[in-house]
Amino acid sequence: MFKIAVLISGGGTNLQSIIDAIESKQINCKIEMVIGSREDIYGFERAKKHNIDTFVVNKKTYGEKFSDKILELTKGKVNLIVLAGFLSILEGKILEEFNNKIINIHPSLIPSFCGPGMYGLKVHEAVIKSGVKFSGCTVHFVNSEVDGGAILLQEVVPVYFDDDSKTLQKRVLEKEHIILPKAIKLISENKIEFIDGKAKIIK
Ligand code: GAR
User: Fold this and answer.
1) What is the total count of domains within the chain?
2) Which domain holds residue 53?
3) Nearest Cα residue to atom 1 of ligand 1
4) pTM for the full model?
5) Which of 6, 7, 8, 14 is the best mutation target for the ligand 1 pocket, counting ligand atoms within 8 Å of the beta carbon and taking the most?
6) Is residue 88 within 8 Å of 12, Cβ to Cβ?
7) Cis peptide bond prior to 111, omega within 30° of 0
8) CATH no. for residue 99?
């Protein structure tokens, strides 16, 4: 059975989309654990409702050993780490041990509106301020460059003149909830090939 760890920092609607995709048999995998960066996040309630093991790993407690602690919890136990609204940056050994085995969902069309400090509503605020007419979301592989790994899937949404960051976020999240489970399905079915640093989907 293909096993995943889902890492979260907030409400966990993306986590929920994975739980729903598993329950409806759209993807054949098991969420082995949910790791969160704070104790009081709603995403943990979603995990507990489905009897998924939960762990809190935060920078305050683990400092420089933060990423190593996550590696300790996941190594040998999961095939893929899914960053589903996880707002801390993974560094060091975990990136080697899980090379091409960590994915992240980002709420913009990478390489626009991404990189250090760009997360959550800040992304949508920057998108609206810029005046672009389209935004979207991206699932990409994680490497040492923030939001810089190979792009796997993207979806586009329109940006309306009257949008605020919350209305745009809602529209983008609907697409996130489609492409994140789809990305897990592709990886679990071994349908990705890496060519020249790019991810090719095998039909
Ligand atoms: C999502 O919009 C996700 O793309 C974003 O945080 C939100 C989490 O929502 N992630 C980033 O900004 C990462 N740079 P959720 O907790 O409801 O899934």
Assistant:
1) 1
2) 2-201
3) 85
4) 0.97
5) 14
6) no
7) yes
8) 3.40.50.170
78 by Cβ neighbours in 10 Å (0-12 / 13-18 / 19+) ranks as buried
The answer to whether the annotation marks 149 as part of a ligand binding site is: no
How many CA atoms does the CB half-sphere of 113 hold within 13 Å? Answer: 23
- Within 6 A (CB) of ligand 1 lie 8, 10-14, 43, 84-85, 105-107, 119-120, 123, 173, 176
Four-CA torsion 34, 38, 44, 45, nearest 10 degrees: 180
| Number of neighbours of residue 130 by Cβ within 10 angstroms | 12
Could you read off the pLDDT tens digit of each residue along the chain, which spans 203 residues?
999 999 999 999 999 999 999 999 999 999 999 999 999 999 999 999 999 999 999 998 999 999 999 999 999 999 999 999 999 999 999 999 999 999 999 999 999 999 999 999 999 999 999 999 999 999 999 999 999 999 999 999 999 999 999 999 999 999 999 999 999 999 999 999 999 999 999 98
